[in-house]
Amino acid sequence: MAPHAIISYDDTQNDLDALMLGRILGDAGAKLTIAYVRHTAQLRRDREELAVHEADALLERGARWLDDPYVERRVVLSASTGDGLGWLADQDQADIIVFGSDYRTPPGRVSIGRSAQTLLERGPAALAIAPAEYHTNRERQINTVGVLPGSADEAAIETAFSLARRCDAQVVDRERGVDLLVVGSRSEAPAGRVMISSQSQNAVEEATSPVLVIARGVALHFETLVTV
Length: 228
Known about the structure:
two-stranded antiparallel sheet; 9-stranded mixed β-sheet; single chain; globular
């Protein structure tokens, strides 16, 4: 079964980067859901109805950016974006949660925001993080998939080769000069959970390509295109 990716989206510039990375994963066969986390419910009915309308309109703008009017959209109510998206991933049995980088990140670099950091500590699904301003080039492709040396378990390696086959890309054992970097979870991580070493986290923060952190022991399988 193709992976299911939840894209964290709140209409900010860096979340356009998340949409772009989600689009790349969608082109590789992933099912996409755009999700917005509301942090509070309004006590007055009219204000709550307005908040619901605004959330729906926000997700509609995300769908238009993706050029996919039929993409699934979800609104989650949670005090924490990370917790809300983790809950949604559990509920929907999603495989990946996609984020943009922190809003202060220099162009072309990856920085782990607070919500993504929450899910790097025993989160229930793989995490994908886009570099800042990744959305400015809508013709991006994956030609080279890097595997972070020293971090990859079998699940990360299997994921890298599955994605490479789908994208007709090459897998390399390096973190620089690649179109996407795959990072494995620590051996101490519980099965099916994300947890990375400080060395891997430093490598993620120095990355100039999108990063895909794989949950321990759970490979992602991108279906190979069949040609006749």
